[in-house]
Amino acid sequence: MKIGINARTFTVDKPGGAVQTSIKHTQKLIDRSDTEIVLFGHSSLKGLYPDTTVDSSLCVSDSQVYGLVWERVALPQLVKKHELDVLYCPNGNAPATRIACPIVMCIHDVNAQKGLSSGIHQFYRRLAVPHGAKIADTIVTVSEFSKEEMLTHLEIDPAKIAVVYNGIDRLFLSAGEGDPVDLPEKYLLFVGSMNPRKNIRRVIHAFEVAKKDDLIPHKLVIIGPDNKSIFKEVSVDNTEDVRVLGFVTEEQLKYAYVHADAFVYPSLYEGFGLPPLEAMSCGTPVIGSDQSALPEVLGDAAILVEPTETAEISAAITELVTDEEYRTELIEKGREHAQTYTWEKSSRTLYDVLSKASEHRS
Known about the structure:
Protein name: Glycosyltransferase family 1 protein
Domain Glycosyltransferase subfamily 4-like N-terminal: 33-169
CATH topology of the largest domain: Rossmann fold
Organism: Natrarchaeobius chitinivorans
Domain Glycosyl transferase family: 184-336
Strand content: 5-15%
CATH class of the largest domain: Alpha Beta
Distance between the termini: 13 Å
Structural class: alpha/beta
GO molecular function, one term: glycosyltransferase activity
Number of helices: 15
Radius of gyration: 21 Å
C-alpha cells in the first residue's frame, strides 16, 4: 500500500505529545515491508527520515503559517502526482477539499473546540478541524473518550471514527535507567506543558500543602516545554522546593521517571495521556485525574483524584509516599498495565484503518 503522510508539523521545535505520537506512527509505517511511504513537508524532514521519499515541492519555508497555505494549495496536487492509495494527516491537518485518494485524519482531542487551548492555535483549530473532519473519509482518535467528544462537538458519523490507542516507546519499557540528570534525592515528578488544562497550578499548591504538614521530605520536579516560566505564572511559597528542568531528552526523561517516588498528573483534560503510562512502565506509581480519558487509559493501576480538589491531590501525594505497601501494589499494577500499550500494537491497528479506508474509497 502506498501511503502519503502530511508531515508538515514534524519539524517544529520541541514537539508536543501529538507531534511525537505522529512521528512514532510514521516510523512504524516506514518499517513495514508492505508499505511505500511518501512524506510531504519541508525538506528538513530528510534529517528525520533519510531513507524515505520526501516531497517538499513548494514548501520553501518551515514556518507553520506558510505551511497552512502550502497544505491547502500545493498538497492536493502533490498527492495526485504520487498516485497514493491513502493520505494520512496525523495532526488534524487535512487538505481543505477532497483529493484524488482517501483521507484519514487523526484528531487527538477537541480541546480547542472547548476553549481549552489558547491564542492563534485555538482560533485555527476551531476553524480547520470541523471542516477537515467533514472532508476526511476516516477519523482516527486516541481513546473512546475522545470519540465521544467528537460526536458531541464535531457532529461526525460514529461509523467514520476509529480508535487507535497510543503506545509506549520501548525505551521506557526496557531495562536501564536512561541518561543521568541532576535531580533531588527524593522528589515527586510532573511532566507536561504550561497549558492551563494540565493543572500545574493545583499540582504545585497540593505539593505545598503536603510539605506544610511535614510528612514528606520531597521536592517537586517539573519537566516539559515552556516550563521555565513557571514562577511567573504560579505563586510558589518556597521556590527551593520546586525544581524546573524545562525540555529534556527521552533518555533523561526516563531517568527522571525511574528515580521519582511518585508521578503527579491530575490533568483537567486529556484525549489520551501518555506521560503517566510512561511513568508506570518505569516503575513509578501514578496519581492521575478521574476525568476525561485518564480513567479509561490508566484503569485501576493509578490513584485517580478529582483534579479541581487541591486537598484531594495533596492527600493522595501523602498516602502514596508514606504507605509503602500501597505504593508497592501500585508499582506492580502499573508495570503490568503499561505493557499493554506498545507502538507495535498501535501501528498494526492504524495500518488496518488506513487499509480499510483505501479499499472503501476504491
